[in-house]
Every structure is written in C-alpha cells, then in structure tokens.
Amino acid sequence: MTRAGVPRVPHAGPGTRPERSVLVVAHRARPEALSAARVVIDQLDAAGIAVRVLAGESVADAHPKAVPVAVEGAADGCELVVVLGGDGTLLRGAEIAHDSATPLLGVNLGHVGFLAEAEPSDLASAMDRVAARSYTVEERMTLDVRVVVDGGVVMHDWALNEASVEKAARERMLEVVLGVDGRPLSRWGCDGVVCATPTGSTAYAFSAGGPVVWPEVEALLIVPLSAHALFARPLVVGPSSTVTLDVLTEMEGCGVLWCDGRRLTELPPGALVEFRRGVVPVRLARLREEPFTDRLVEKLQLPVAGWREGRGANHR
Known about the structure:
Blueprint: E1 21-26, H1 31-46, E2 50-54, E3 67-69, E4 80-85, H2 87-97, E5 104-108, H3 123-131, E6 136-140, E7 143-149, E8 152-159, E9 162-167, E10 174-180, E11 183-190, E12 192-196, H4 204-207, E13 220-225, E14 235-237, E15 243-247, E16 255-259, E17 263-267, E18 272-277, E19 282-286, H5 292-300, H6 311-314
Parallel strand pairs: 1-2, 1-4, 2-3, 4-5
Antiparallel strand pairs: 6-19, 7-8, 7-18, 9-12, 9-16, 10-11, 10-15, 12-13, 13-14, 15-18, 16-17
C-alpha cells in the first residue's frame, strides 16, 4: 500500500505467469472520455486483459473491473498505456509511462491530435488490435533539460514535444544569449525561445513559425518567440548538439521554463538552461503504416487538389 492507501502495482510471484495488463489514462474533465473508458475496460476485460486506472480520478469509478493504482509506477509491467483525450492527455500519459518505457496508444478526443493513433469511431477495432497484439511500436526522440545556477544543477527534466524558456512578466522582455556546442550564436531580447523535437515541431514550435520536421529526422529545433533582432529565424541543429540559453543577469525579474507546457521551473537572472537529445525515447503504438505526409494532410486539412499520383514517374 502507498501512504494514501492506494495499492501499488502487484507483481507476479515465482512460477506464475504474469497476466496481461493495460493502463488507461483518460481526460479528467470530458464526459466522452469516461464513456470511452467504459468501452475500453469492457472490451479488454472480455479479452482477459487486466485494466488499471489512476486512483482518485473519475475514471477509477467508471467501471467495477478497473483496478485503481497509484500514479507512481502505474505503467510498470503493462504492455500498453491507452490514452483517451487530446495531445495534452497523451503528454500526461507519457509522463506516467516514461520510466517504464511502456508504449502509448492515443485515442483522439481533442482537436488536432497529432500524437493520437485512433479516433473515437475506431475505438472498438483499436481495442481488438490491442487484444490481438496487432500493432507496431515506434520511438520518438525526447529532450533532456537541465538548469544550472551558480555552477550547480538545480533542475533536471525531460520533454517529448518541447521545452520553452519564456518571460515571466508580460511587461518585460526576456534577455538571453543562445549558444550551440559551446559557442555563442546570438543575443535576443524576446518573449521566449522554444527548443523542440521533431515530434514537437507540429506543436508550440509550429505555432511560433518553426518548420515541420518529419519524426524520423533526428534534430533539435530552436524557435525564438517575438525576438527584437534582425537575426531571429528558426534554427535546426544536429541531434548530438548541445543548445544553451543564458538568462542574462541584467534582466529585471525572472524567466520561466516549461517542459511540454506541464512542468514549470523559475529561472533567476544568471541561470543557464541546457538542452540535449534525451537518453530515453517515448514509444508510441501504431495501428497502421501511414506516411507522415498523409497524417499531416489529414490533421491540418491541407489542400491537395490537383495532385496526380505518379506524375514524377511520367517525366523520367
């Protein structure tokens, strides 16, 4: 038992065959997420798969067959984390599954849902695929983030989409110096700077004018936010690069660091933020082999009228 009286994840004893188990993480405020959770639990339970849910959340009361577990270690031993919600809920699921490296399967109940693999209309067939273990797993690059103050590391975190350094007060600019691989590149007075992965290139970095980068590309993106400078273009650097942002001491007030828009750290003047490629990737379950181009067109509803398949072959 945990301190709060919530059971930890049980472990199979010697000589016993561990049961199949799936963790369900649902949006905490959407009624449709609870309805979807009931369908998922019913279907997986009928297939002989134990279903865990997070204790203390509304989904824990959604079905009598669901087993409430503490957040810490919730995904340990699970073959999959099924996430019911938008990309924000999937990022939360990624936090929970990060240490166990359990793959995530997203069902989109949000708006765009770039990270999701299935829509609500596909829910039953998606759970059939889960029961049959008929899915593939792809790995997505992550960011490793450290904050150094007075020569000591005061924060060490990670992000799947992006980490952003931003001004804390609306009326003041953030003063930073960008460095790449130990060399200074540019000083900016700005609203902030986003450092993103290819996965995050369709999130905050995209809204800030950064390029869309295909997820199989290994790179780090740097996107300044409203920088008051002649050189303030988005940058793409190699996966082995180290990107740094010095928060200048002459800046009035503090900056803030957000990891995936979920975890906040205050940055005093003189803080150094370091970004590197993460050691542990996030694993996403895929139900179909689909080119990223098709996903981009579908999610952003891009106009493609006039495309003639195979036109390039006709001109060889």
